[in-house]
Amino acid sequence: MGACLSCLFGKKTKSLYEPLLQENEREAVADLLTYLENRAETNFFEGDPLRALSTLAFSDNVDLQRSAALAFAEITEKEDVREVDRETMEPIMFLLQSPDVEVQRAASAALGNLAVNTENKLLIVQMGGLEPLIRQMLSPNVEVQCNAVGCITNLATHDENKSKIAKSGALVPLTRLARSKDMRVQRNATGALLNMTHSDENRQQLVNAGAIPVLVSLLNSPDTDVQYYCTTALSNIAVDALNRRKLASSETRLVQSLIGLMDSTSLKVQCQAALALRNLASDEKYQLEIVRSRGLPPLLRLLQSSFLPLILSSVACIRNISIHPLNESPIIDAGFLSPLIQLLAYEENEEIQCHAISTLRNLAASSERNKRAIVDAGAVERVIELVLNVPLSVQSEMTACVAVLALSVLLPLTNSSSVEVQGNSAAALGNLSSKVWEQPEGGLNGYLQRFLLSTDKTFKHIAVWTIVQFLEGRDPKLFANISSSDTIVSAINSLAEFGVTTDGEEPDDDDDSDEIVALARKTLSLLQ
Fold first, then answer.
1. For position 411, what pLDDT does the model report?
2. Which of 56, 257, 465, 521 lies in disulfide reach of 64, CB 3.0 to 4.6 Å?
3. Per-residue confidence (pLDDT) for residue 508, from 0 to 100
4. Using the 8-state DSSP alphabet, how is residue 485 labeled?
5. What would the pLDDT profile of 27-84 be if each residue is shown by its tens digit?
6. Which 3 state secondary structure label does DSSP give 400?
7. Which ranges does the UniProt record give for the ARM repeats (predicted)?
8. Which one has a higher pLDDT value, 247 or 384?
């Protein structure tokens, strides 16, 4: 920076430019050169150093403005970024509106550097920084574009700025620049788009700005940062059911691209690809499409990783995929049972344990063959070994799963050719249905009542699903116990008639609630 100023105001200042400078400008140039030579001891954000920079910034001489902008850019880049006040920000904001490309480039770079600080992010927007930054994004100069978009990216990391950016008109030029041939501009633009996907309102405005096809096309970018930004942005967009329907109708290659990214050389891209598939798999169409598109092998590989985020993202994804009955056998046949059972003991992360046992429960939902395969893989023994030492949320899932699996093992054995096997299995069923019905700790009866009457929709789902499995097992003692429980029958009747309600509010209207109602009605049919 000192060399740059010397170039502008060294030998030439004494001849050509000197008559053009005001007295205060000549003094400011001299002072600034002195301050730059002693930069280690100088605070440029206050006092005389700031006044010298401001004099150059507000000058009518474009060379002085360039020097001030370059000085601000270099100072803010090399010094620790700190909170600054309006007096410091004003000359930079003034320079930002200059028609000169060099001034624009340096001023937006300085502003982007300052926008690393949380308080500065707010101040820049409050002082009207968005409008000139949007104009600079439309500049034909790539350097100006890059710095302006980079500054917007930093500003968009603050929650208070996100809606203001969305409403400022910035999303359309950001979406256009995401296709830039310059990789730096592309990275900054896709990073800014990602930062705008963290709220429902902003996601919708982003979709309206035409971001979805751009983000999907850039999944095939050779740059891993762009891949990461686009994959994560699409994952966030896919949280909304309406957006998933738009993706399903317009982006036919999306699932295939995300499956391909699970083999990326970048761990963070692999992780986000699995999370994006997890969010898409909230819908039945995507649950089936992921399996049909050969998504199971890469998910199994991630599931067996030693890297916790990869394990979590993949087990969350397979849990959603396993909800569809047609996916149960393909998942089992693909070799998921043993890794899932191993994850039941993953003490480092409760969420992984919950997803693993929930997946096993889903896989046992509709096929005796699959239940048998899960039991043969050692799931029941593993759960019994762990159940008293896992968190309560995991315990609830484990007990529901084991109850169903135990029935699937014991009931067929009552038809064994061995009288001894028949007797033992019948005795075990008797224990399960009568001795364990009330004890210990309220037994199966208490567990079912607590879950049915819970305000948690997931607990209601677990309870009514478990009752269906019990009734379909056709054990007379269990049938009698369930049908004679006024609390259970009343709760099932309420769910079948009124759906899932919370604190007296209107019934929930979503896929999970619809499934609970369907299961409750099936229960009543079985009881009749």
1. 63
2. 56
3. 58
4. -
5. 898 888 888 888 778 888 889 999 999 999 999 999 999 999 999 999 898 767 889 9
6. helix
7. 87-129, 128-170, 169-211, 210-252, 253-295, 294-336, 335-378
8. 247
Give every CB contact of residue 59 below 8 A, 6+ residues apart in sequence: 22, 25, 65, 68
The residue type found at 413 is L
For 218, which DSSP code? G
Q: For the whole prediction, is pTM greater than 0.90?
A: no
Give the torsion sign (CA, 328, 331, 334, 337): negative
The pLDDT tens digits of the residues spanning 458-496 come to 888 888 888 887 787 677 888 888 999 999 999 999 999
| DSSP notation for 34-88 | HHHHTGGG--TTSHHHHHHHHHHHT-S-HHHHHHHHHHHHHHHHHSPP----HHH
| Contact (CB, 8 A) for 56 and 32 | yes
The CA distance from 64 to 70, in Å, is 10
Spatial separation of the C-alpha atoms in residues 161 and 125, rounded to whole Å = 7
Fill in the amino acid letter for 105.
R
What phi, psi does 113 have (nearest 5°)?
-65, -45
According to DSSP, residue 19 is labeled G
pLDDT for 275 equals 98
Task: For Cα atoms 198, 263, 154, give the angle at the middle one, nearest 5 degrees.
Answer: 30
272 — pLDDT class (breaks 50, 70, 90): very high
CA distance 231 to 217: 11
To which residue do tokens 């309102």 refer? 201
Question: Closest Cα to residue 228, out of 277, 187, 173, 182?
Answer: 187
